[in-house]
Amino acid sequence: MIQLEKRRNISKFWTTLTPVIAVFLTMSFGGLMFGLLLGDFSSAFGAIKLIFWDPLFDENFAPYARPQLLVKAGPIILIAIGLSIGFKAGIWNIGAEGQYILGAIFGASIALSLYPQESILIFPAMILAGALGGFIWALIPALLKVYFKTNEILVSLMLVYVAENILASVSQGLLRNPEGMGLPGSRNLKDYPSAHNSEIIPNSGMHWGVLTAFLAVILAYFLFLKHQKGYEIRLAGEAPKAAYFAGINPSKTIIFCMGMSGLLAGMAGLFEVAGPAGQITMSFNSGYGFTAIIVAFLGRLNPLGILLAGLLMALTYIGGEIAQLMLGLPGASIQLLQGMLLFFLLATDIFTNYRFKSRSS
Amino acid sequence: MAEVLLQLDGISKSFPGVKANDEVSFQINSGEIHALLGENGAGKSTLVKMIYGLMQPDSGSMKLGSENFRPSEPSKARQSGIAMVFQHFSLFDALNVAENIALGMENPPRLQDLSEEIETVSKSYGLPLGPRRLVGQLSAGERQRVEIIRCLLQNPKLLIMDEPTSVLTPNEVKTLFETLLRLKGEGKSILYISHKLEEIREICDYATILRNGKKVGSCIPRDTSAKQIGEMMVGKSFSSPSRKTRAFGEELLKVSNLSIRTKDFFGTSLSNINFSVRVGEILGIGGVAGNGQDELLSALSGEDKTSPSTIKIFNQPIGKLAPDERRAIGMRAAPEERLGHAAAPAMTLIENTLITSHSEDVINQLGIIKFDNVKEKTKDIVSEFDVRTATLDNAAASLSGGNLQKFVIGREILQKPRVFVVNQPTWGVDAAAAAFIRQSILNLASNDSAVVVISQDLDELFEICDTFSVLTNGRMSKSHNIRSLSSEDVGLLMGGSDLDRKSHDTA
Question: CB contact, 8 Å: A8 with chain B?
Fold first, then answer.
């Protein structure tokens, strides 16, 4: 008989290895699923290769897909870094999607109200406004939690639906393009040089948002390695009573963590609307805020891990699109594949927290 | 000649890196109270766990009566007539006594019948206990009774008790001993694990002493002095803490009219507590845990805030200050719960040092942590307080209870606090480590600090304190010079009466 025994020191070896195992299990079971869907198991390997390999290395797909990888990974990583700060403290912001939308609306509003004036200050002002929008939206669940002990998971999640309704409303009303023949959706910021989040290096996919995401990775790494605030956040998550004993104010921690994650999600929204998306539309948001939750966990709440996990997740988005196009796989099966990744990660986590012992009966 | 109930023969058990039991042999007779003695880590728990079927020996054999005995799980041991009362109770606060007992049974009878049975057993053994009372409202002694009655319902031949008196008041200890003697009179045997030598001398017929997993001796406790037994346990002679007579200086800590409503459903509110501690003075606060001890510590550490002038140090009101702000002006505390409160279980010792370090030599003005300095501090704690750990990067949870306690106490004492408050400083710590901790508390006081020791171990308080008071039911007695107190006085104080009203109370 095999027995589980809780580890006293969490295994660093397995902490690093389990995400890799989870990826391989996802590939195997994903392949199985695609085989069943296509009714042909010989093409299962092809489907997996199409998703995980071809976007980067196939000469037909790579020229388009490689820049897309950064475009997709940028916002996911930026949001996930923010979320990981709260998750480490045991503060669960599930509403990054809403903060992302509000950031986009706030940032775009600045640009649209100043159109068509040109100034070098417009884009920085948009970034600040975007950050502010996400910050304010995240502050609502934070303050409700501090003052009324509400559950931040529920409040932040429900505020996503509020944000979606605001998005629908402003794309048909306040922010609608006056020259758009009555169709919903704002002016396209790609046609407004001062407001456009353009690529820093042409055809690389590297826009200001991607750069910000990389910067966030470095800063978060430093925060948790060396800074008092990062230590306090970890302590609050590991042992709330010990944190309180240390003198760390739990209300301040909640506001800092929620605020930071909202701020980064808001910035991600702004960079998206001013760059790849170009305009506020009813379907502007595409679920990055939720995907980032998976990425944060897949990356072990570790900034470098999140960087890798974000790139991997972006790959499944792009590869998934190609697979839908080439093989006619349903879009839901790609989401299923992404869900599998989290599922297998949680399942293999048992190795990091427990050791297996055989027991002779 | 009493017949042999349980015979152990050459029992050995190893874990990776340690030999927990090495060729241990002894026997327990019917109708005998047999003491199993040893320091923490001597192998008492492992041995008992094998008798109770929680573990199996690597080699050696046991005989129960005339039959070979090797229980593969606790239910087998129970079927053979062995019962055990653990040091840590496994009870649910929100359920009543009968429900708690029913939960541990394989085929519980109807709750009605069980309640009657509980009442019969509790009466016949002198352990008063209402079966319908909520466990959350019971004192530690009453909770233990629940565990004992749970065992007695199985009608065992051998009852194992792990440190049974560590949570009891002197009166409760007396009641327990009467019960044990009654059980003995019925021909039942008791295996009694403890490190309180006086108790063992009082009630045990025979003692087996373990050290480093080996049996190092046996004796008839009544005929052996506590000092001799203690030396057998430790393997060397050890001195009890020495104290110099100190003159007390000015008043350092003053608490006036402290009242706090507890936030915990099963906690105790503090009402109108007044005391002061002077330079060089150690104030001992006795009383059973759960009578407001945790609440008092939180109020002093700064985890619970009060109006500013309720708590003053150096005549400066600090009732509103947070724990880190209090540390900055020289007041430090060490709570009872080591893992999760005083230390973060999954974090390294270095990171745990940082919990109560805020000064500029560890964190600069930009908030950047100087880990080299924190590491040095941790190294000092580990070496000066003899904390046994493989590396400084070990998680706090990987240390044994006694070692972690030395770490937690050392972390505060090395900062030389002017006012130090500690709750249960040596709970679950072996004799040598306890003596060391007590000595460092004494040293701190003689270096011009004021110390408050909250403890339920009266022997400890009498060993190191200058003044003594009792916290019962959230109220604190006046403090008295400890040398002026007789054991009757202490009993009165523990019962919640103040000595000034002695005549009134006894009338």
Answer: yes
